[in-house]
Amino acid sequence: xxxxxxxxxxxxxxxxxxxxxxxxxxxxxxxxxxxxxxxxxxxxxxxxxxxxxxxxxxxxxxxxxxxxxxxxxxxxxxxxxxxxxxxxxxxxxxxxxxxxxxxxxxxxxxxxxxxxxxxxxxxxxxxxxxxxxxxxxxxxxxxxxxxxxxxxxxxxxxxxxxxxxxxxxxxxxxxxxxxxxxxxxxxxxxxxxxxxxxxxxxxxxxxxxxxxxxxxxxxxxxxxxxxxxxxxxxxxxxxxxxxxxxxxxxxxxxxxxxxxxxxxxxxxxxxxxxxxxxxxxxxxxxxxxxxxxxxxxxxxxxxxxxxxxxxxxxxxxxxxxxxxxxxxxxxxxxxxxxxxxxxxxxxxxxxxxxxxxxxxxxxxxxxxxxxxxxxxxxxxxxxxxxxxxxxxxxxxxxxxxxxxxxxxxxxxxxxxxxxxxxxxxxxxxxxxxxxxxxxxxxxxxxxxxxxxxxxxxxxxxxxxxxxxxxxxxxxxxxxxxxxxxxxxxxxxxxxxxxxxxxxxxxxxxxxxxxxxxxxxxxxxxxxxxxxxxxxxxxxxxxxxxxxxxxxxxxxxxxxxxxxxxxxxxxxxxxxxxxxxxxxxxxxx
Length: 588
Known about the structure:
- This protein is α+β, with helices and mostly antiparallel strands.
- The chain has 25 helices and 16 strands.
């Protein structure tokens, strides 16, 4: 058996394709949305029996070598070496020698980047103070090695001279972008005195770097140098088409069926170390359509970690617009206290999963943020048109738009028909959002400070604390048994699990309720108000659950009518609850 046959025998085509594309079984074959052209229904097929793939939409087809060549944009010799390494097949010496002779210019640059990475890793060993800094940021030695973090010493030509000694030409070194050329002064290293984070292509080959400044460095004019420096774009690196850690996150993203999107490398690396290996980073820029296409090969769901600063909020909002326009399901998560994910994980790793679990639909998140500002109706109208409508207008699915129209109608206290007319008028007057547009998109609001506990849990806990306090109060005027029964019935009816607080939590809730309401005579009205708030949050959570079922059923081409009927039936109930709350607020 020759080496090509050995590779094919060890690497089933579905396994190879499945690391790049989310496959669904279709009888004895698999199908997926084609990664080579844009489509809404799957026409890309993989046949294990024929050891081949074929797309009926764009007519691309072939074996594992053809697929890897197409998806990675590499030559056959490169694909052969890549798959041989993955299969554990040793290529014959003659073939290896022939491949070395046939190395393309791109392969030479890839080899140069690998040598550079190893040199940076070796320099990190020589600078234990830098490693100690990384330990202080929470990284383990295993993580440092896994992400191949290194160090570039504060020298002008250390890397250039090392690469020259290994047989690379000045032209190759300059084209790799790890050095720069200044007329009349020669070459100097791009990265000096920086902690180095390699950026990989989807196959795990180094194509660029991000360098974080080490120490108190100053530019020639005396100003501090940039904290982070990325490789300039070149033959290997085009930042709009690259996601940090995508090579490591591919399989976890496909298995979890969701991608977690953060802004910086340290945030991403710490998330991986905390177990969220489906995390990727966009490295200081907004998401692009090309990056969304990479994510969509594996999942249609993304959680965006919103940064607390204005630049981060703006980038997150633009990222959401791009993802929604590409028919992604987008949720937003907020790190408590406005911390970066890396800092939060360092201090509260046990609470990190709750941050992700409490991620909220991005449009509903911004609508709720507006509610919390307690603006006038006219102010809400202006904010909705400026900030919420762009998110809804870009969606291609009218069913998805319908979901948010009802929420906007409640926020603005207008009929849904009026809200529909407003959004359609907006869509007809405004150009589609494009990442190439020069003007900045203003984000809706600064994200409100949140903790990892959902609104439902907070309100439900407050009510339970009040009931626990009154149950031991000898002269209670509160119909606590009736309220508790109604509370339990709501959870049961809407099929949402309720977890009774433990002994320590129960004591805390009781003491909090006594402190908060000890001198208040209107406990029955307060309990009724809390119960209404619980019901509203339960209904909204049920809506979220049904919407996910509708999306899943649509993807699987199943009947959605039952889910749609249940979903529509909840809207009048939410309106009725909010009417009761408004009337009670007016009376009180």
